[in-house]
UniProtKB/TrEMBL annotation:
Entry keywords, A to Z: Glycoprotein, Signal
A GO-annotated cellular component: external side of plasma membrane
Keyword Lipid metabolism part of the UniProt annotation: no
Domain Ig-like: start-end pairs: 202-261
Protein name stated in the entry: Ig-like domain-containing protein
PANTHER family for the chain: MHC CLASS I ANTIGEN TRANSCRIPT VARIANT 1-RELATED (PTHR16675:SF237), MHC CLASS I-RELATED (PTHR16675)
GO biological process: immune response
Species in which this protein is naturally found: Dicentrarchus labrax
Range of residues in the leader sequence: 1-16
Record's keyword annotation contains DNA repair: no
C-alpha cells in the first residue's frame, strides 16, 4: 500500500499582509495502523494544533495556542468536540455513504478535507475555501461565490446534487468560511503575533542525484511562508510547469552561468544561487532525499501533487500548500526543456 503521508510543502503568497488559517483532516476506513481521524490546524504556515482521535491527543503545538486554550475554555471545548466526537462521527458517516454510492468494498478508503480562509489585513478581504479528496484523488470542492459544489469527476456528481440541495449545510459553510474562521484567524494572530511575524532565513542549495539527473533547488529552515523559489535564465523567471523535467544535457557548459535559483522572502534580500557545478551537491547512489515531516493533506484542483521521478522520490510536491515552519522543503524546480515521457507524471 502506498504511503498515506503527504508532506506539506511550499506556499506561494502574493502579499506579505495575507494571513491564512487552514484545517487539514484525514479520516480512514479499513486501515489498522493509523488513527481513524488525524487533523492539523495551520496558521500562516505554522502548525498550531494537532489532533489524533484514537490516541485522544489534542495538542497545541505553539505556546500562544496553548494560551488561547487557557484563556478561552469554550474554544478549547469546541476543538475537543471536533477532534474526538463530531469529526470522527462525521467522517465515518461520509466514508460509509461514499462507499455505498460508489459501490465499493470494505477495503481501505481515505477521506481528506481541507478548509479555512485567507484574510488580507490591509484590505480586509476574506477568501474561504473547502474541498475534499477521496482515496487520494480530488473529489469535490465548495464554490463560495456561487454557493454550490463543484464535482471534477463523474463519480462525485451524485454527492454534488445532494449537497447542493442541502441549503442548511450551505448556509453553515458560508457562515464559517466568511465569519467564524476569519474570527478564529484574527484571534490566533493577536496571540501569536511575535512568533508569526518573525523571519528565518533558509539554507539554499543545488542538488543532483546523478550527472544525468535534473538539478533541483532545495530550501530548508525558513519562515514565514510568504516566499517563492524560482529558476531564472538570463535574469528572467522560467515559466515552466514544475512537473516537467528539464534535461541539462541540452544545455552547453558555457550556458550554465545563464541560470540561477532565487529564493525570495518578503522583507529580506533575495538569495541567489548561480548554476555552477561546484555548487551542486550530489546524491548519487542514494534512493532520494528523505523529507522529515508527515502530515495528511488534500490533493486539490488548484495545484495537484507532482512526484519528481529523478530526485526526490520520497517527496510529493504541491505548489499551493503551506509548509510547516522549520521543516525541510523538498521544492524541486527541474531545469530544462525536454524529458523522456516515461519520466513525467
Amino acid at each position: 500500500m502506498k504511503t498515506l503521508f503527504l508532506l506539506l510543502l511550499f506556499c506561494h503568497v502574493s502579499s506579505a499582509v495575507k494571513h491564512s488559517l487552514k484545517y487539514f483532516i484525514t479520516g480512514s476506513s479499513g486501515v489498522t495502523n493509523i488513527s481513524e481521524l488525524v487533523a492539523a490546524v495551520v496558521v500562516d504556515g505554522s502548525l498550531a494544533i494537532y489532533c489524533d482521535s484514537n490516541k485522544k491527543i489534542l495538542e497545541p503545538k505553539q505556546g500562544w495556542m496553548k494560551k488561547v486554550f487557557e484563556d478561552d475554555p469554550q474554544h478549547f471545548e469546541w476543538a475537543t468536540q471536533e477532534c474526538f466526537q463530531r469529526g470522527p462521527n462525521k467522517f465515518k458517516v461520509r466514508i460509509q455513504n461514499l462507499k455505498q454510492r460508489l459501490n465499493q468494498s470494505e477495503g481501505v478508503h481515505i477521506l481528506q478535507e481541507m478548509f479555512g480562509c485567507e484574510w488580507d489585513d490591509e484590505t480586509g478581504e476574506v477568501n474561504g475555501f473547502m474541498q475534499y479528496g477521496y482515496d487520494r484523488e480530488d473529489f469535490i470542492s465548495f464554490d463560495l461565490k456561487t454557493l454550490t459544489w463543484i464535482a471534477p469527476k463523474p463519480q462525485a456528481v451524485t454527492t454534488k446534487l445532494r449537497w447542493d440541495n442541502d441549503k442548511a449545510r450551505i448556509k453553515y459553510n458560508e457562515n464559517h468560511l466568511t465569519m467564524i474562521f476569519p474570527g478564529f484567524l484574527k484571534k490566533y494572530l493577536d496571540y501569536g503575533n511575535s512568533s508569526l511575524q518573525r523571519k528565518e532565513l533558509p539554507s539554499v542549495s543545488l542538488l543532483q542525484k546523478t550527472p544525468s539527473s535534473p538539478v533541483s533547488c532545495h530550501a530548508t529552515g525558513f519562515y514565514p511562508n510568504s516566499a517563492t523559489l524560482i529558476w531564472r535564465k538570463d535574469g528572467e523567471e522560467i515559466h515552466e510547469d514544475m512537473s516537467v523535467d528539464l534535461n541539462l544535457s541540452s544545455v552547453t557548459p558555457e550556458d550554465w552561468r545563464r541560470y540561477d535559483c532565487v529564493f525570495q522572502l518578503s522583507g529580506v534580500k533575495n538569495i541567489v544561487i548561480r548554476l555552477d557545478k561546484a555548487e551542486i551537491r550530489t546524491n548519487e547512489g542514494k534512493t532520494g532525499i528523505i523529507c522529515d515531516s508527515v502530515l495528511f493533506c488534500l490533493n486539490t484542483n488548484a495545484a495537484t501533487y507532482h512526484r519528481t521521478q529523478q530526485h526526490h522520490n520520497s517527496c510529493l510536491l504541491k505548489a499551493d500548500q503551506c509548509r510547516i515552519s522549520g521543516l525541510t522543503v523538498c521544492f524541486s524546480l527541474q531545469l530544462l526543456t525536454t524529458a523522456p515521457s516515461s519520466l513525467r507524471n
